[in-house]
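Exam revision sheet. Question 4 asks you to relate a sequence to its structure. Input first:
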Amino acid sequence: MSRVINPERAGKLRNQHMRTAAELLRRLGQKYEVDAEARDMVAALIYCFREIEDGIEVSMRAWEKRNYWNKVEQFRAQWSWLSAARGRLEELVRTGAWDQLPMYILPLLPHFMTITINKFTRTPETWAGAYERLMAEYAQQSGS
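Answer key, structure tokens:
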């Protein structure tokens, strides 16, 4: 019997979400004001970060099963910035402190410097409605 290969590996999905996040950050950097589209982009960025975190957990569980403890610790350290960044962005969205957005975005840029964007491949449909979905999610969490 041949080996089953999962084409949707955690690393592949993580790279796709990193690319999406890099494009979102680049587009946000081109905005002069926080409009509805910018809010959608920030919400989509939060969703990307959540997906990346989920993929990191999947990878770490697989390595822990093989007793690759050093690799797990290195990987955890490499991605330690992600959870804090997501938390700060979520706080920004919840409080509506949009005037502080540049201060939240600038520290993220070094983590995306290795991603070269010659052409935008993500369309506005990628982030359309993300802010509304995120706010509905927050409302549901506070209501339960």
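Marking note for examiners. The first helix runs from residue 10 to 29.
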